[in-house]
Task: inverse folding
DNA sequence: AACAAGACCTGTAAGC
DNA sequence: TGCTTACAGGTCTTGT
């Protein structure tokens, strides 16, 4: 479900809730291992803490307190919502009881998500965070020149290259196809054979497509919801993703689809070279 | 070292 | 209708 725009939208929703209702009365873990083992002392450490901020790094959410941050990855199907009595779900793996009596739930049917504690000062050394690449919305750090440099002599498909979270973070399967369409680059090309001029277009395309999607509240496919329960609308603006055999919105050529790097990939054979 | 493929899970939709 | 199969927004691990 969630790539950078969806995670950023969820971040904004949680921030809105937690700014008004910032005290964590209790953390209840219904499942000690969603995907990895959650530290046993996490509920104890966060109990009674005041949330000082909600941040995003890559596709991770960080709910900050003075004693550490709750680290969360949504995996494929993770979501947060305010759950009222009677609205509980078997896949609610974590509840956070807030000062007002509201209850936040982390629901994740496929359990590809993650909850962990990042202790103060551990942010740069935490195993899930330490190898992450640049933020694509950081204009200074994320440039076509950087992509060009990091990709030299690499034979991996350019689409898999920009989905590699050690290179650039936040770009997942939908936005990789969408950005490559906007940059007019075929996804199967070897990363090392893409030119600097093309990478300049690609960096710009990543930025613009991610920003446009954030503005639309993300792409809602299947079960993705914002923390407010609303759907995003960016799926309506997809140019190629999940549009196999449909006409290109620019030139009317049939959109092609093929598995690249183990993931479904979509492109226009006319617009992209 | 770099890359591809498999593994981890459940839910849903399509095909027979 | 019911069973089987394929596939889904991610990323970690294993094998070549």
Result:
């Amino acid at each position: 479900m969630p790539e950078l725009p969806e995670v950023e939208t969820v971040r904004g929703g949680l921030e809105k809730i937690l700014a008004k209702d910032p005290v964590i009365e209790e953390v209840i873990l219904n499942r000690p291992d969603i995907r990895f083992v959650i530290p046993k002392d996490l509920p104890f450490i966060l109990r009674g803490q005041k949330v000082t901020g909600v941040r995003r790094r890559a596709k991770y959410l960080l709910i900050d307190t003075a004693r550490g941050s709750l680290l969360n990855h949504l995996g494929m199907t993770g979501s947060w919502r305010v759950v009222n009595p009677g609205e509980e779900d078997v896949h609610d793996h974590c509840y956070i009881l807030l000062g007002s009596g509201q209850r936040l739930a982390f629901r994740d049917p496929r359990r590809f998500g993650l909850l962990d504690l990042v202790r103060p000062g551990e942010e740069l050394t935490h195993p899930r965070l330490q190898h992450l690449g640049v933020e694509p919305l950081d204009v200074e750090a994320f440039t076509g020149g950087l992509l060009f440099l990091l990709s030299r002599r690499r034979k991996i498909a350019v689409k898999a290259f920009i989905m590699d979270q050690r290179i650039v973070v936040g770009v997942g399967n939908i936005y990789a196809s969408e950005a490559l369409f906007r940059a007019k680059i075929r996804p199967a090309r070897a990363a090392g054979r893409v030119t600097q001029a093309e990478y300049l277009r690609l960096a710009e395309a990543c930025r613009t497509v991610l920003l446009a999607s954030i503005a639309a509240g993300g792409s809602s496919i299947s079960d993705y919801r914002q923390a407010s329960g609303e759907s995003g609308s960016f799926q309506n603006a997809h140019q190629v993703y999940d549009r196999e055999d449909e006409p290109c919105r620019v030139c009317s050529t049939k959109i092609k689809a093929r598995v690249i790097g183990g993931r479904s990939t979509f492109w226009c054979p006319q617009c992209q070279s």
